[in-house]
Amino acid sequence: MSVLIKNIKQLLQVHDHNELILKGNDMKHLSVIENAYLYIEHDTIIEYGDMEYCEGIDAEETIDAKGRIVLPAWCDSHTHTVYAGDRTAEFVDRIHGLSYEEIAKNGGGILNSAKTLQNTSEDALFTQSMERLDELVRMGTGAIEIKTGYGLTVEAELKMLKVIKRIKNESLIKITPTLLAAHAIPQEYKKDKKAYVDKIINELIPQASELNIAKYIDVFCEEGYFDLEDTERILKAAQTYDLRPKIHVNQFNILGGVALGVRYNALSVDHLEELNDADIEALKGSDTIPVALPGCSYFLGIPYTPARKIIDAGLPLALASDYNPGSAPSGNMNFIVSSACVKLKMTPEEAINAATINGAYAMGISNMYGSITRGKKANVLVTKPLNHYREIPYNFSHNPIEHVIINGQLKPMKNPEENFRI
Ligand code: NIG
Ligand code: FE
Fold first, then answer.
1. How far does the centroid of ligand 1 lie from the alpha carbon of residue 327, in Å?
2. Which ligand is nearest to the CA of 110?
3. Angle CA(246)–CA(247)–CA(248) in degrees, nearest 5?
4. Domains and CATH numbers, the chain
5. C-alpha 138 to ligand 1 mean position (Å)
6. Over the stretch 283-301, which tens digit does the pLDDT of each residue have?
7. pLDDT at residue number 413
8. Contact 342, 303 (CB under 8 A)
């Protein structure tokens, strides 16, 4: 199957050389070809360029993208898309004044989601998660990281991994699985957290590795959850199983998790709503990418990650949705890109770079995803008619997307009722 997209008003994120990450000032530039074409064969980007060089290309399917923008599909590097039920009751509690931390202390929060997940069958969990994923693809997500972490028992964590594996097999979009081994301390271990960390190290990580699904290890390094010592023990144990860290740090408090992550060669350190100069220094010269999650700040009303401080220090930055039932119940990357501009003061160019190529880097897949480059996977978005790519973040909460192409296959988006399964 071959597809030619012609008369593209602006083709975004074009790189002749296979860039893997954009840092600091380089993030300010978004490479664009005006009045362009893009040619895809099977699942691969074959050629692109100025419309004047398009003649003679004979494709099985041609899309006239007149007035539309084409860009790589969003790469969402931090999500908890596999979960059961919802937490709308806690949402109302927060409206009435309870904080996220207070709700968690009263046995709500992650423990609440874990209880629901433990009582949900693998099939039901799969169905619920797949429905969410279908919606995300319609909103332009073409690659996504999915974490475990709502199991809180070995058995339930393995169930989550199996569900993620089924999703990986059924969905055409790229799935990157992460074992969020230490997400919260179960009630029965409240008085003996060490015993729970031992269980993670001696049972969960080895058994999860036998399933050979997860690529990354995650820990919620935070006051009231897992401290630096717990985090280090888990990261060390995970090294033996080749699980590279992608960790939750600095959401509410600075414990030193950023430097620890860098020391263990973390692929990413995520959240960073709180961030100090020592954290910035630790990240300099490392291969670890910071990840901002503005949907979480929006929903919880906590500070936004200081993106300017990060980028202006010459560091890279990725944007992700953090899609989860407690702190960010939306995986809409169009909104994430928009809120990064409005709240993190990122330019549209920086935000689009952060949600495509840098998002792919934060999943370890930027050699194949995240830019318009010959040989990369053909996961691309065709927008509705727009005057400029700046309208993508400007028209916040609109869905700018008309078509999604995943692995070279066109998904019609005109009829929102159509619940396509990819
Ligand atoms: O990234 N911070 C830890 N984990 C999730 C929230 C989990 C929840 O509240 O269910 C997050 O925000
Ligand atoms: Fe998260």
1. 6
2. 1
3. 145
4. 2-72+369-412 (2.30.40.10), 75-361 (3.20.20.140)
5. 24
6. 999 999 999 999 999 999 9
7. 52
8. no
What stretches in the chain show pLDDT beneath 70?
Answer: 412-422
418 CA → ligand 2 middle, Å: 30
d(CA 118, CA 211) in angstroms, rounded, equals 19
* Pairing, β 401-406 against β 32-41: unpaired
- Is 104 in a helix, a strand, or coil? helix
Does residue 324's CB lie within 6 angstroms of at least one atom of ligand 1? yes
In 3D space, the residue among 249, 381, 349, 394 whose CA is nearest the CA of residue 22 turns out to be 349
The predicted pLDDT at position 410 comes to 83
Query: What type of residue is 371?
Result: S
Q: What is the H or E stretch that residue 121 is in?
A: none
Residue 144's DSSP bridge partners are: 76, 175
Residue 198 CB partners (closer than 8 Å, separation 6+)? none
* Residue 322 beta carbon below 6 angstroms from any ligand 1 atom: yes
Residue 107 is predicted with a pLDDT of 86
Q: Which ligand is nearest to the CA of 295?
A: 1
* Strand-strand pairing, 2-12 and 61-64: parallel
Backbone torsion region of residue 302, taken as left when φ is above 0, otherwise alpha when ψ lies between -120 and 50, otherwise beta: beta
Instruction: Kindly state the tokens that stand for 290.
Output: 């910071």
CA of 420 to the centre of ligand 2 (A): 27
**Beta bridge pairs of residue 62:** 4
pLDDT value of position 306: 98
* Shortest-distance atom of ligand 1 to CA 104: 9
Q: Express each pLDDT in 129-144 by its tens digit.
A: 999 999 999 999 999 9
pLDDT value for 153: 98
